[in-house]
Amino acid sequence: QVQLVESGGGLVQAGGSLRLSCAASGTIFSINVMAWYRQAPGKQRELVARISGDEILYADSAKGRFTISSDNAKNTVALQMNNLKPEDAAVYLCNMVVRTSYVGSYWGKGTTVIVSS
User: Fold this and answer.
1) Residue 70 and residue 78 in contact, taking contact as beta carbons nearer than 8 Å
2) CA distances from residue 11 to 52, 86, 92, 97, 107 in whole angstroms, order as listed
3) Residue pair 8/112 in contact by the 8 Å Cβ criterion
4) Are the C-beta atoms of 6 and 94 separated by less than 8 Å?
5) What are phi and psi of 101, to 5 degrees?
6) Closest CA to 48 of 39, 38, 40
7) 104 C-beta neighbours (distance < 10 Å), count
8) In the chain, which residue ranges form alpha helices assigned H by DSSP?
9) DSSP three-state, residue 111
10) One digit per residue, pLDDT tens: the chain, 117 residues?
11) CB-based contact 105:1 (threshold 8 Å)
C-alpha cells in the first residue's frame, strides 16, 4: 500500500509564504504524476499544480506565485507558495499516480493553509 503524508501548512499573513511538502511511502516502482490540489469550504477540489516528468502545469491562480518541485529519488513533492492571498486558504492535498504492482492514484489527508488579511 502507498501512503502520502503532507506537511507545511499553517497560518500566514497575506503576502507571506509557505512551503508544503508531501512524501510517499510504500512499495513504489515509479511515480508518474505528482500534484497538489486544494479544496476550500463549500467549493470543489481544484488542481493547483502538477508535475509529470518534465511537464509542469499550474492553475491560472497559481502562476507566478507558486512553484512545484519534485525529488523522484525521495518520492517527494513540494509546493512553494509566495505572495499568498486570502483566497488561497484551503486544505491542500497531495496526489500521486504511482506504479506498484499496478498503477493507482493516491491521496494524502491534506494540510490546512489559512491566510489572514
Assistant:
1) yes
2) 29, 11, 13, 29, 23
3) no
4) yes
5) -80, -10
6) 38
7) 12
8) none
9) strand
10) 899 999 999 999 999 999 999 999 999 999 999 999 999 999 999 999 999 999 999 999 999 999 999 999 999 999 999 999 999 999 999 999 999 999 999 999 999 999 999
11) no
d(CA 61, CA 28): 32
Q: Which three cell numbers stand for residue 54?
A: 518534465
d(CA 92, CA 69): 15
Only one residue has cell 486558504, namely 89
Residue type, 49: A
Tell me how many degrees the CA angle 108-111-114 measures, rounded to the nearest 5: 155
Residues 6 or more apart whose CB falls under 8 angstroms from that of 34 comprise: 22, 50, 51, 52, 68, 70, 77, 94, 95, 96
Cell numbers linked to 116: 489572514
C-alpha span between 88 and 20 (Å, rounded)? 13
Beta-bridge partners for 43: none
- Asked whether the beta carbons of 48 and 36 are under 8 A apart, the reply is yes
